[in-house]
Amino acid sequence: MAEPIIEVDGLVKVFRGNVRALDGLSLQVEQGIVYGLLGPNGAGKTTLIRVLTTLLAADAGSASVAGIDLNADPQAVRSRIGLAGQFAAVDDYLTGRENVELVGRLYGFSRRDARQRAATVLERIGMLDVADRQVKTYSGGMRRRIDLAASLVGSPQVLFLDEPTTGIDPASRRSLWELIRHLLDDGTTIVLTTQYLDEADQLADRIAVIDHGRLVSEGTTADLKNRVGGTVLDLSVSQADRPNALAVLEEAVVGGVTVDPGRDTIVLPASDGVTTLYDVLGRLDRARITPTDVALHRPTLDDVFLALTGSVPGNEAAAGAAVGAGTDRETGADR
């Protein structure tokens, strides 16, 4: 691994009610990669982003970004990072260009430099031709692009993207994916949180899976999939047969049986592939349980996520109100 640009050691953050959003979290992020943060709602992802961007102080532990200790010099950290949060932080009544120039001025650039930097960034993200329209006339994808442009105007060494494609259409998502890939050409390090596992699979060079404020696994997508096993078996049975089927399978399978509520399937490792399939079907047949659907496949990030956290993104209950409503999205604690 190259010299890390982000180092996190034993971070702890406790909110009211003794809710431990971060519980001794440690990780390192290599320079010049996309580093994905995955985890259920309430896992600690957004709290970690808020700590690393100096928006929130940790209660214990240490962290550095671009070689600068967060506690020692937070202002210097801010000058080296960019942040695009879960909600596009743009002013509807300003034009796209004015929004980006405003952030440039907040970085401390002169009016002239802010204007030049804004024009460069707007051209780079393909928004120069609509830059002089009010943001309130933009689509969701265009608003996201302007928000991203504002986060880039300071030429950050590290760019934090907190669920950047939530709520936009598939075409806009893929367009943003391409933009994120191009940012790597300049050596920008990107820390990405997402609820879309295909997004993490497409973009992330390394992935950290976080649950209950702790790092539960880390590696490339191939590493994580290999840890689940060679193949995975999905089974669908009737709701009436589900309890008996789970009892039969839990006796038969080493490595754990889980239920994916999104697909309404039973998921289990099939280390021996077709041999495991025959064995499982035989056991179910002897228990007079007939599956309604069976699939044997290579592990996906969904399977990894389910095996590590017991759930899949998008299927958990909301854990508190959104940040924009004045509460911490992950803990429900007042900010």
UniProtKB/TrEMBL annotation:
<dbReference type="InterPro" id="IPR003593">
    <property type="entry name" value="AAA+_ATPase"/>
</dbReference>
<dbReference type="GO" id="GO:0046677">
    <property type="term" value="P:response to antibiotic"/>
</dbReference>
<keyword id="KW-0472">Membrane</keyword>
<dbReference type="Pfam" id="PF00005">
    <property type="entry name" value="ABC_tran"/>
</dbReference>
<dbReference type="InterPro" id="IPR003439">
    <property type="entry name" value="ABC_transporter-like_ATP-bd"/>
</dbReference>
<feature type="domain" description="ABC transporter">
    <location>
        <begin position="6"/>
        <end position="237"/>
    </location>
</feature>
<keyword id="KW-1278">Translocase</keyword>
<comment type="similarity">
    <text>Belongs to the ABC transporter superfamily. Drug exporter-1 (DrugE1) (TC 3.A.1.105) family.</text>
</comment>
<dbReference type="GO" id="GO:0016887">
    <property type="term" value="F:ATP hydrolysis activity"/>
</dbReference>
<protein>
    <submittedName>
        <fullName>ATP-binding cassette domain-containing protein</fullName>
    </submittedName>
</protein>
<dbReference type="InterPro" id="IPR017871">
    <property type="entry name" value="ABC_transporter-like_CS"/>
</dbReference>
<keyword id="KW-0067">ATP-binding</keyword>
<dbReference type="GO" id="GO:0005524">
    <property type="term" value="F:ATP binding"/>
</dbReference>
<dbReference type="InterPro" id="IPR027417">
    <property type="entry name" value="P-loop_NTPase"/>
</dbReference>
<keyword id="KW-0547">Nucleotide-binding</keyword>
<dbReference type="GO" id="GO:0043215">
    <property type="term" value="P:daunorubicin transport"/>
</dbReference>
<dbReference type="InterPro" id="IPR005894">
    <property type="entry name" value="DrrA"/>
</dbReference>
<keyword id="KW-0046">Antibiotic resistance</keyword>
<dbReference type="GO" id="GO:0005886">
    <property type="term" value="C:plasma membrane"/>
</dbReference>
<dbReference type="InterPro" id="IPR050763">
    <property type="entry name" value="ABC_transporter_ATP-binding"/>
</dbReference>
<dbReference type="GO" id="GO:1900753">
    <property type="term" value="P:doxorubicin transport"/>
</dbReference>
<keyword id="KW-1003">Cell membrane</keyword>
<keyword id="KW-0813">Transport</keyword>
